[in-house]
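Protein data:
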Amino acid sequence: MSQAVAGVHASSRSGRRMALPRFHQVAAVVLVLVAVVAIAAPWLAPYSPSAQSLDQIRPPSGAHALGTDALGRDILSRMMYALRTDLLLIVPAAGLPMVVGTVVGTLAGYAGGVLDAAVRWIADVFQGLPLYIFLVALVAAMGRGPASLLVAFTALGWIVYARLVRTEVRRIKTAGFVEAAYLLGRSSPQVLVQHVLPHALKQTATYFVLDLGMALQGVAVLSFFNLGVKSGTPELGAMVADAQIFIRSSTWMVALPGAAIVVLGVCIAAVGDHLSSRTRGESDGR
């Protein structure tokens, strides 16, 4: 009996392991399709995202597959361009903090001493700040627009990357293969670039994927409160904000861009979780 029960549990775990990668694969395919649609929006969109119609609000129909908004603009076309806008915002919003945090964390972890202590102190101070309140305050102070968003995300987002890279660099720089590289006559910059960073950046790359989801949420929230993109720019959060007064009479105007944010967030999280699991497995294997 116990063997049978153990077999059932083993097969159940095996089934979950088989099902989980499929979900990650579906999520990855969705993200690729979203990227393709965003890049090809000028050629795929049936209408101009700013073209208005005197008929104003129309429900989904043959002429407008996802309906129109309060100004008669085609929602499908605007969502395609909104994906383009969000893609051009969230990639640098996660990428710039990654670059800054990687450089700072690498220098702090490798050099140690006063620099390491200073970076840890600054990171502790920034990490104690309320994230979204500080983000809103920064954007409000600098004025809305892509430049303000990127500066605000970078000012707050570098900390996690710096901590990750610093920890990994401190661990790896004392490894046997690093010491062997020094014995072979490699200089410190060569050892750092060729041997330390390739191993230290694995977790950073994983967190970057997860950070894309947080950047998407941050951009959508700021745009919802009119602190993100300029008025009239197709962006998912801004579309939800513009249509919120029609949530009862024309639900699709809010539900469709809102659902797109949720689906994108779930897909990014799924891919990031899969990469995180693989990274942890490799670490355990070592």
The mean pLDDT is 80.
